[in-house]
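Here comes just one.
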Amino acid sequence: MLSLLDAMDRGDVAAQPAMVLANRPDAGGLAKAAARGIPTACVDHKDFADRASFEAAVQAALTPAKADILCLAGFMRILTADFIRPWEGRMLNIHPSLLPLFKGLHTHQRALDAGVAVHGCTVHEVIPDLDAGPILGQAVVPVESGDTADTLAAKVLVQEHRLYPAVLARFVAGDRSPLALT
């Protein structure tokens, strides 16, 4: 999230942040966004009996911000088709693997267990199918002997901070062609 905000501040992305929303009150990005004067909201998923009421509250919090694009970054909740549909074609996510490999959680350990030579991250459009939307960009890191899930995660994170702003800049400009970073 901070790399997206930094890219907007530098003028690398022709957009302005409308809001930072989290589903956890302890999310560090809330305080960092507020310190920059960006509106924030927290909709704690634990306060809701079901996914539908949680998603309705998230949408209600987002509506006043009048955002054109929704960028997920560290939002670790699976969203339903009912939430996604109104945002389809305008919602992006960053995933810590080279999709379509290793959808879901624990991607770094799964990459190590699979013995792949490269790993990385993907920015994709969000559709109702988990981690299956059109790929807008990928960045690759080598998997080296001695890598652990933690060391691999650290290498991928560096690339996430490069890839997501680059893809968002292109997306805002109307370019949805896949970007590859090495």
About this structure: The longest strand covers residues 118-125. Residues 120 and 156 are 5 Å apart (CA to CA). Strands lie at 20-22, 40-42, 70-72, 91-95, 118-125, 135-142, 179-181. The mean pLDDT is 97.
